[in-house]
Structures are given as C-alpha cells and as structure tokens.
Specification:
Distance between the termini: 59 Å
Strand content: under 5%
Number of helices: 17
Order of helices and strands: HHHHHHHHHHHHHHHHH
Oligomer: single chain
Helix content: 55-70%
C-alpha cells in the first residue's frame, strides 16, 4: 500500500547541490502524481530543517512556472504550518518554500486571517515575511481591514520589524484616505510605535495621528512618548496644543466624522 509519510520524507532526503535545481525539477516533472500525492502533504511530516531547503525553494519556483500543481489549495497547509511552535530555522524554511510557490493574490486572501494571527506571535522573522504577503492583498475587496488593525497593533512592541511596521502603517494610511477611522482609541495603540527608534516610521505615525486622530486629548496621548520622538515627527507633534474641552468641536467633530463615514 502507498505510504504517504515514507514517500514525503524520502523525497526531501534527496540532497541537491546549488547547481542541480533544474535537473531536480525536470525529474519531478516526469512524475506528476507527486504533485498531488506527496508534495501537498509536506507539512504533515516535515517538521525539521532540510539541509537543501534553499534548493527546494528554487525547485518549487521552477515547478510553478511549468504549471506542475493542478490543485494549489495545499498552499493553505504551508501557511498554516507557520502557527506551529517549531524552531525558527524550520519556520524560516517554510517561509522560503511559500515564496517559491509564489501564491497569487486570491490564494493569499483566502488565508488572510491566518496571516493576521501570525502578527501576534512575537516572532520578528515571521512578521517580516507575513507583512509582505499582507501588503499584496491590502487593496483586495475582501481584505478584512478591522481584523488587520486589531492584530497589527499586537506587534507594535516587537523588535527588529520597523520596515514591517512601516508597511502596516502605509496600509492604514491608504485605507483612512478612503474611509476615516471610527475608533478614536486606536491612537493610543499607534502612539506606542513612537518607542521604535526609526525616524521614517515615527513620521508616518505622527502624520496619521495629526490628520486622522487630532481630537480632544491627543497631546495627552503623545505625552509619555515625547522623549522618544525624532526628526520630523518631533516637529509635527510640537505644534499640537491641548484642545479646550469646553469647546464642542473636540468631541462633536469625531462624532460627525464617524457618522459621515458609515
């Protein structure tokens, strides 16, 4: 009888040098049954690092160009496996393999909530990989923006992901240009990003706050982070002055803005 596990493990036990990817792809193309009966089941059995994983990334890329996989739904399994508490080198291997499989926008959008969940895992390499995929679907009609904002805020304190945080802020900015935010409390979470010592990120956050969240109490929200501010962010926020709570504009402006965007 066909033993799925043995076939999967034996397939990845084959060592490829960096000059053999094309040859390996040619061999696999001769056995189309592997595209449906073996490779899609990789995540079920390969929970350890493969020495030739970089070569496999290139093999997957070559196979995709040849239209080797008749059913690409298995990409979901490759993405879901990133939620496992495995070693970093194994998770990084799957990230490379997913890149090799070149998921389409439609394939990514089907897995958007898994990707959002990855933002909460406090793993910088996973977040950096994930945010690149999220950026590809951020303008898709089915993009779940509220779910993204909720999960994105949970990685604001993760170190070494400034570029990914900048990508996320740019996604917020593009969305707010079309529909103003309706949750004023989100500015308190955004302000946490001022602790990241990246001048470009801080400037983007400062712009968001002054354009879309400049309502009663904003100076007080920013106050705990003023010592972290750099460059243009510092200049932008220095112009803020506490609003007079006796004036109706502070709260009523937000209510009017929210109503107009519903």
């Amino acid at each position: 009888p066909f033993n799925e596990e043995i076939f999967v493990k034996n397939l990845y036990d084959i060592e490829y040098s960096r000059t053999q990817e094309a040859k390996a792809a040619e061999v696999l193309l001769q056995y189309p049954e592997l595209a449906t009966r073996v490779i899609p089941h990789t995540p079920a059995y390969i929970n350890y690092a493969i020495s030739s994983n970089l070569e496999w990334q290139k093999v997957f890329a070559k196979l995709c160009k040849e239209g080797y996989f008749p059913d690409r739904n298995f990409i979901t399994k490759f993405i879901e496996v990133l939620l496992n508490p495995w070693k970093k080198n194994v998770l990084d291997m799957y990230c490379r393999w997913i890149e090799g499989l070149s998921p389409t926008q439609e394939e990514i959008i089907k897995n958007q909530h898994t990707l959002f969940a990855l933002l909460t895992l406090d793993k910088s390499s996973l977040i950096n990989f994930t945010m690149k995929l999220i950026a590809q679907i951020s303008t898709h009609p089915d993009f779940d923006f509220p779910a993204f904002t909720d999960n994105f805020s949970l990685c604001f304190t993760v170190p070494k992901i400034a570029k990914s945080q900048l990508i996320g802020i740019e996604i917020l900015e593009k969305h707010y240009q079309k529909q103003a935010p309706t949750n004023p409390d989100y500015r308190e979470q955004l302000a946490v990003l001022f602790t990241v010592p990246d001048a470009q990120l801080q400037e983007k956050v400062a712009n968001l706050l002054t354009i879309y969240f400049n309502h009663e109490g904003l100076p007080e929200v920013i106050a705990p982070y003023r010592d972290y501010l750099k460059g243009k962010a510092q200049d932008l926020l220095a112009t803020l002055s506490p609003l007079d709570s006796s004036t109706p504009s502070a709260s009523s402006d937000w209510s009017a803005l929210s109503e107009n965007t519903q």
